[in-house]
Amino acid sequence: MGQHRGESRARGISRGPLIVLGLVVVIVLGVFGWFQLRDRINDQGVAAAGACVEGESVLAVAADPDIAPQLQTLADHFTETAPVIRDQCVSVTVTAVASDTVRDALSAGPDGPWDAAALGPRPALWIPSSSHSVKQVSATGVISGEARPLATSPVVLAVRTAFANAPGTTAIDWKDLPSLQTGRDSLATLGLPGWGSLGVPLPVGPGAESTEMAVEAVAAAVTGSSTGPVTEEQARSVPVTSALTALALGYEASSGTKPATTREALTALAEQGDPATSGIHAVAATEQQVYQALRDAPGADITTSMPKGPTPVADHPAAVLAGPSVDETQSRAAAQFAEFVRRPEQAQVLADAGFRVEGLARPDDTPLAFPGFESTLVPADAAAAAELMQVIRNPITPRTSTVLLDLSSSMGEREGTATRLANTTAALAAHVDRSPDSSNLGLWEYSTALDGSRPYTTVVATGPLSAGGFTEGTRRQALDARLAKATPATGSSTYTSLEAAYTSAVDGYTPGRTNSVLLVTDGANDDSVARADLLSAIAAASSTSKPVRIDVVTIGENSDLNTLQALADRTGGSLEKVASSDGAALPTAISKLLS
Fold first, then answer.
1. Per-position DSSP letters for 396-435, written without gaps between them
2. Per the record's keyword annotation, is Membrane included, yes or no (predicted)?
3. What is the pTM of this model?
4. I want to staple 408 with a disulfide (CB 3.0 to 4.6 A). Which of 26, 195, 309, 492 is the partner?
């Protein structure tokens, strides 16, 4: 019988699926390994960064003293976050230094000298009181990018409560301050009888930037500007110089100690007795400075009053600086710290200190109202601001002066880009333009036989600058026009002309102010009058009840120097020698003797 084979063959497993499975396992393991490697690399990078492989970097910040304490608090918070920039661990240190002091130092340029002993380490970040200071840095290449504000505070008048509550004080405009400062019993018109004239101190030293901003507000209001900025032309205009002169002279005439800084002025305001008999009635200060003064002296009788007109604002901008000492790490750190300060949770530190920060609440521990205002004053540039403060620092006192101008042929010699005479008349015209309307000025010219047999002629009779009746308009305009027309003649009859001008000045004496003859000459007398005769004639013409001084500006070499010095000394005048009419020396000398 046949038999089937009972053997069975085992079926094999296909190789294809095994290969695929193996590849999948390899890929999974590879991917897993990659992630492990990547994480390890990242961990190593973080560890390296955390270890500050490139070392440490200290960001130096120079900040206005008003905001420096809060910035140091925020700097500590920033440092606590362990910031790492370009593999360097960054910390921040803040030095409190007056804004105008830093401004002047930075104006020397990005690689200019820096007094670390007085100003602290050279900063990579500067936070002044206001963009006012930033605009006045005259050097280029100092500030990197745009300086953006951190916190603001308007400039106001710090006053006593009785002053703020008077019926007329709410209507005060910035442009009213000069007339209130100089007007007799001017505060009576505001409802404060017996208080006399307004007393607004004008500290101009380091730490008195509020004065500079207030001065700009006065100038802007006088020109009718709603927002500014005050231009250099406006700063030199008669209305502005007259207003600022009145403001400065009124302050100079006030009694008592003159505060050197805004803080000192605020302290004096708070500590003085009866405000009606005090010399200080109002202090130009930032709102935050007043807030701080109240915190330092709880219960002090001071508050704020905000004049109408464009309001200057201390906006405390963060200016990242440039220069050899500021590397990329420092620049980035400065920018990051500024942004850190702007975060609401950090900026609240500034708001709590009395600064205004948009979106954040004002302090509730003060009687100050933090009112709104109409418009913000745009700061002036460096040139305009310098012109304004020049008037405040060197106000031109109203006086009666006759200018006796030498037209000898030597005045036609060229010095610089113009003749000696052209340089002189330009300097005289600039002073005339800056002089207040209340000044009495006149112009005589002399040479040889200018008016018949006389070597001199009265070009513009001495009198008030604002007086009219001249072909050109006012006396001021007539002086400008005649100075522009002056041309050299021949000789130099100085003695005869000076005697005549002096006698005329004594005859036309104006009581209650300085009276003078200003001789501007560049050479020796060449007429027949002897030195002794001139000295004798001047002595005979002088009067103790009508004192007239002889002031002299002599240009270049002058063999008559001893005689001219003797005349100045005997009449209480001064003599200024300048080597050349070209440059700043001549205008400075003229301004000194006519101010």
1. ----EEEEEEE--GGGGSEETTEEHHHHHHHHHHHHHHHS
2. yes
3. 0.73
4. 492
